[in-house]
Write a structure and sequence with these properties.
heterodimer, A: alpha/beta, seven-stranded mixed beta sheet, four-stranded antiparallel beta sheet, 13 helices, 11 strands, flat, B: alpha/beta, 10 helices, 9 strands, 12% strand
Chain lengths: 326, 312
């Protein structure tokens, strides 16, 4: 992995032949919009590229004697996605683990293969942010992605590939400056959740706290649809003798998400659904994959129409667990 | 802003067991937020707050208690009380189970508008009154900072209540803002452009529907499998179908509270559709929902003497 400084001029030169293949997250655009050309496609998060809200998995028709099936087409042109660390982490540590582990999702894999990630350091964590609580950080990086810190006149870059050949050695001074900046941004951020949290949380599945925690949630899908890690989907057949199988986003907040054909619903009220959302992100997923299925971007907190705040649910359960351990 | 009186009243009702539960607002985890809260013990009434950020229509929080026997006190702005009136008229609750603590509403303030005009804002820089506020010592009128849904409000005062805390207010609506007129004056093409742009941003999270106190169908048509009207993909045509369907289903029932629009995470002007439908109902039937328990709801009433041939 190399490090270096890319001047503004060279940055724009590097972008020149990529203009029509550039994606930028909404939140990164707010901070770094001026570093990207007007052609850049602004998306809410990586889900919009990798897991579109609607996708034809295959088309079919009845050809008189037999069914004909054609698989859906997936765009494989190389694309670049620039986002904040939390949003990149959602892809690398969460959705990749879901769709690239067996059984592999072919469509996701094809899109993912052609997607290069750029991580833009987060220099202004917002009041709704909590990445450090869930194992991330404003300077979180990953070897597969470019890591960038835009400065006044240049960009500090870490990683591999073509962009690095445009860079110049920054020397010790730049290294110091970046380290100082990182320290400054990270100071005062909450420390990570205790390692026993995911395992112990499940022991509190039946606790009465969930009634109170879930009470004011309206069970809309704003949090799950806007979350960069929520990946649950529905499959439906659209058409009879001719049609397609549709994959569309679904949300554990909706009653129909778990409605059985018998009309029994194992998650009949908001309480079970809210608990599921918390448990999946903070217990089931980490127990299976080793990290939380929440990157602490805070979008759900910011966008919730009734200020349902997942941090409060977590804090309350951490407190309870620690009280019982003491 | 009458917070003390509200807490005192809530405590009194709970202690006397006049009610089992009080539904009101409390401070949120973010500044400039008041979120719904359920208070069931007199010791907790101190959590209740009343301010310019009471965005939700609390009548919506009654719905999960339809099949219980709980007696519930509800803090009700003009629009919340109107929604309760419709719920009562539609026989969702017996009158004696709901105790309405009426609150003349000072209007909900938009955090976005505060930030647009005042820049970076902190809660401690403000001191609030009903009609004005001090920001860093400087006095501002509330009016320009109101949510659109509240600037157009006709009924800040609850038309129905068991008791009223505070003094009745004049509506903010002064003719300077008439969103419907603006739309009515546009050509069909312009209106289509407007709604197409707004509704193509909809992610169909159903926050609007779930925030609505009168959207209480057990199964929403948008989620029905047979017949299947829309699928889960938020395309413009399905979004339009959902929002038009919802607006029509609310015809003559919508109390124009705008909770749908305030709930929208994408800030889509979604309240305009039901607003237009209610204007048509007003013009044709001289009726506004939720203003009295006695007046018949024209679209929910069947009469053999109906002058409309098509309905007989």
């Amino acid at each position: 992995m190399s490090k270096g400084l890319v001047t503004k001029e060279k940055w724009w030169k590097w972008l020149e032949d990529k203009k029509d293949r550039l994606f930028l997250s909404e939140r990164a655009q707010k901070r770094y919009g001026s570093w990207f050309p007007p052609e850049v496609k602004v998306v809410k998060n990586g889900k919009e590229i990798l897991l579109p809200s609607g996708e034809e998995m295959y088309r079919y028709f009845w050809a008189g004697e037999e069914w004909k099936v054609e698989e859906g087409e997936v765009n494989t042109a190389p694309l670049f996605f620039f986002s904040l660390p939390c949003e990149a982490r959602a892809i690398i540590e969460i959705t990749d683990k879901v769709f690239l582990h067996e059984p592999i999702d072919k469509n996701y894999r094809q899109r993912r293969k052609s997607l290069s990630l750029g991580i833009l350091a987060c220099l202004q964590p917002e009041p709704t942010c909590f990445c450090s609580l869930v194992g991330g950080g404003p300077f979180w990086k990953n070897e597969e992605a470019l890591f960038l810190v835009p400065r006044k006149e240049d960009i500090y870059v870490e990683g591999e590939g073509e962009l690095l050949s445009y860079s110049e050695e920054g020397g010790e001074k730049v290294k110091q400056e970046i380290q100082t900046l990182q320290k400054e941004v990270e100071s005062g951020l909450p420390s990570p959740l205790p390692s026993y949290f995911s395992q112990e949380l499940y022991q509190h599945f039946e606790d009465e706290e969930w009634d109170d925690i879930s009470w004011h949630c309206m069970n809309c899908g704003a949090c799950t649809f806007l979350c960069p890690t929520c990946y649950c989907f529905d499959l439906s057949i659209e058409g009879r003798l001719k049609g397609f199988q549709l994959r569309s986003w679904d949300s554990c907040m909706f009653p129909k998400f778990t409605l059985h054909a018998s009309f029994h619903n194992p998650r009949p009220t908001g309480k079970e659904r809210v608990r599921q959302r918390v448990m999946h992100k903070f217990s089931y997923f980490p127990e299976r994959e080793g990290n939380f299925a929440c990157v602490g971007c805070g979008v759900c907190v910011e966008k919730c129409p009734v200020n349902w705040d997942i941090r409060e649910a977590i804090e309350r359960m951490v407190e309870k667990i620690d009280r019982l351990r003491a | 802003m009458f917070e003390k009186e509200i807490r005192r009243k809530a405590k009194e009702l709970l202690e006397a067991k006049t009610v089992d539960l009080v539904i009101g607002y409390t401070s949120g985890s973010l500044p400039f937020q008041a979120r719904p809260i359920l208070v069931s013990s007199p010791e907790d009434v101190g959590k209740l707050v009343w301010n310019h950020f009471a965005r939700s229509n609390l009548a919506r929080y009654l719905l999960p208690y339809r099949d219980s026997s709980k007696k519930i006190a509800l803090l009700a702005k003009g629009c919340d009380a109107r929604a309760v009136a419709v719920l009562l008229q539609e026989e969702q609750f017996p009158r004696e189970r709901i105790h309405i603590i009426g609150l003349p509403c000072p209007g909900v303030i938009s955090r976005r508008k505060l930030e647009e005009k005042l820049g970076e804002i902190k809660e401690e820089d403000f001191s609030w009154e009903e009609n004005s506020f001090l920001f860093q010592g400087e006095k501002w009128e509330v009016r320009p900072f109101l949510e659109d849904t509240c600037a157009r409000c006709r009924y800040p005062n609850p038309p129905l209540y068991d008791e009223l805390i505070g003094e009745e207010k004049e509506p903010w609506r002064d003719g300077s803002v008439d969103y419907l007129k603006e739309l009515d004056n546009q050509s069909r093409e312009e209106r289509w452009q407007f709604f197409a742009a707004e509704l193509s941003r909809c992610i169909r999270c159903y926050a609007c529907r779930n925030a609505c106190p009168l959207c209480y169908c057990k199964e929403c048509f948008a989620e029905s499998d047979s017949p299947r009207w829309v699928n889960g993909v938020p395309t413009l045509s399905d979004n339009l179908f959902f929002h038009l369907g919802r607006s029509m289903h609310l015809a003559g029932r919508c109390v124009e509270c705008g909770a749908c629009e305030r709930a929208c995470p994408e800030e889509i002007k979604i309240g305009l559709l039901p607003l237009k439908v209610e204007e048509i109902v007003r013009e044709n039937f001289s009726f506004e929902a939720g203003l009295s328990l006695e007046e018949e709801a024209p679209l929910l009433t069947y009469k053999e003497s109906d002058p409309g041939e098509f309905i007989k």
